[in-house]
């Protein structure tokens, strides 16, 4: 009886452990404002959408490509990558800080409306 209970508990523990791949849940945009609509709210919002699109497009290349793109945008002061590589935290000159998740909506970062022209990365 006790061994049967132990086996049952062990099976429950194995079944209850979920995976660590959070990318499908983080990148799911269902229920959110569409990227083009959010980009029309302002220049910083457009830059956040463009970085999200870049993050989704460069997933296979690694997060560094998206970090480099984010640092090339004029309003971005600092970029911090999540340790698992699922999102970026952007800090803007205005003081606004936001987390950006991958936005795989079929658009490229350059197609984002209201996007200011990219410039050289800010001096550190």
Q: How would the blueprint of this fold be written?
A:
Elements: H1 2-16, H2 23-26, H3 35-39, H4 43-57, H5 63-72, E1 76-81, E2 88-92, E3 97-100
Antiparallel strand pairs: 1-2, 2-3
Helix pairs in contact: 4-5
Spell out the key features of this protein.
alpha+beta; 3-stranded antiparallel sheet; elongated; 124 residues; single chain
Percent helix among the residues?
25-40%
Largest sheet: 3 strands, antiparallel
Quantity of strands, as a count: 3
Tell me the distance between the termini.
66 Å
Average pLDDT metric: 86
Radius of gyration: 19 Å
> What are the low-pLDDT stretches, counting only 5+ consecutive residues below 50?
none
Structural category? alpha+beta
Side-by-side strand order of the widest sheet: 1-2-3
Order of helices and strands: HHHHHEEE
Shape: elongated
How much beta, percentage-wise? 5-15%
Number of helices: 5
Brief account:
The protein has 124 residues and is an alpha+beta fold.
Kindly describe this structure:
It is a single chain. This protein is an alpha+beta fold and 124 residues long. The protein has a domain at 20-105. 40% of the residues lie in helices and 12% in strands. It has 5 helices and 3 strands. It has helices at residues 2-16, 23-26, 35-39, 43-57, 63-72, and strands spanning 76-81, 88-92, 97-100. The protein has a 3-stranded antiparallel sheet, covered by helices on one side. Helix 4 runs antiparallel to helix 5 (63-72). The longest helix is centred in the first third of the chain and has 15 residues, at 2-16. The chain is elongated and about 70 Å long. The termini are far apart.
